[in-house]
Design brief:
Elements lengths: L1 E3 L2 E3 L7 E5 L16 H13 L4 E4 L12 H8 L2 E3 L1 E3 L8 H8 L2 H10 L19 E5 L7 H17 L3 E4 L6 H7 L8 E4 L7 H10 L2 E5 L12 H10 L6 E4 L19 H14 L1 H15 L7
Parallel strand pairs: 3-4, 4-5, 6-7, 7-8, 8-9, 9-10, 10-11
Antiparallel strand pairs: 1-2
Helix pairs in contact: 1-2, 4-5, 9-10
């Protein structure tokens, strides 16, 4: 089953999916660019639905303004399935006092949010909400798994073994995908999504990660991380030609207010379907597009839930 904020659904009902995005996100690294406006999030989600979108995975983990309490109503209003994340990002995204609270009993926090319900970011030890997380989001560092990442990876692996949940990984600058798979000790690669691979378009490691069985996430264009957008289709072509079309995922990764379509400069979440999907159909055919936007997300977020 796939765990959404409105409950568990069968994978074949997920539909056209944005596999990595943010309706809400607030990091100390992006002052003044917080995604914290509920009406703006609803407008963005409705525009995505109008373009044919049926599901969205919000990768915003604990402590970064994910507005867990607002997600069910947004899902209902727009008619879009939302998969929410537990997990923890890089240390630099948090104020130290908040991070120290979240790191206490980290694996237990992940497991509780997956099985009992999400906690509000402003009340990390408060009562659980009725909606539960459907994935675990963690992050590596540039070309390495540093000490903080090692702690979060250990907790993510424990939570995966306890719950069956998928682990989604922010690769800093798209780097170190094979090292990340090794660091997630005992977690099958088929339960891991490697994000931001387009930011480091080294085709060899992409193919090796695919051969290991991981799902490969390409996300953007994001105003904050668009330097390698022009290489996206080279990366996709390499994987498709090598027989790995069934492991590709695409997302918008909207991380700043400036990147929203309706209230910022765009291109926003709908661009993933209005432009990227349209070109995939043109360049690679409708079956590849169906794999990337329907079949692959249905497998990537499907879990044998044990909680």
């Amino acid at each position: 089953m796939i765990r959404t904020v409105l409950g568990d659904i069968a994978p074949d009902t997920l539909g056209v999916t944005d596999s990595h995005d943010h309706l809400f996100f607030a990091s100390v690294r992006l002052p003044g660019q917080e995604l914290d406006d509920v009406p703006a999030a609803e407008a963005e989600l409705r525009a995505f639905a109008a373009a044919g979108g049926q599901a969205l995975a919000q990768w915003t983990p604990m402590g970064l303004g994910r507005r867990a309490g607002a997600l069910p109503a947004l899902s209902e209003a727009a008619g879009v399935h939302i998969i929410a994340a537990t997990g923890l990002h890089q240390a630099g995204n948090y104020r130290p006092e908040k991070l120290s609270v979240l790191l206490d009993g980290l694996a237990a926090r992940f497991i509780a949010e997956l099985g009992e319900g999400l906690r509000r970011d402003e009340e990390p030890d408060g009562r659980p909400l009725s909606s539960r997380a459907g994935l675990i989001k963690v992050a590596g560092d540039f070309h390495q798994v540093n000490q903080h990442a090692s702690l979060t990876f250990e907790a993510a692996a424990a939570a995966h073994h306890a719950t069956g949940s998928t682990i989604a990984v922010h690769l800093e600058g798209g780097t170190h995908p094979l090292g990340v798979l090794s660091a997630l000790d005992g977690v099958p690669a088929s339960s891991v999504i490697l994000g931001h691979l387009n930011r480091f378009p080294d085709l060899g490691p992409h193919r090796e990660a695919a051969e290991a069985g991981a799902f490969l996430g390409f996300d953007g264009p994001s105003r904050a991380n668009h330097a390698t957008d022009w290489r996206l289709f080279d990366c996709l072509a390499s994987l498709i030609e090598a027989g790995h079309a069934e492991q590709i995922l695409l997302g918008g990764d909207t991380t700043s207010a400036a990147a929203r379509a309706g209230t910022g400069g765009g291109p926003g979440i709908p661009f993933l379907l209005t432009d990227i999907r349209a070109r995939i159909i043109r360049d690679f055919g409708p079956d590849v597009a169906d794999a990337v936007f329907r079949r692959n997300p249905a497998r990537a977020f499907d879990a044998d839930w044990r909680v």
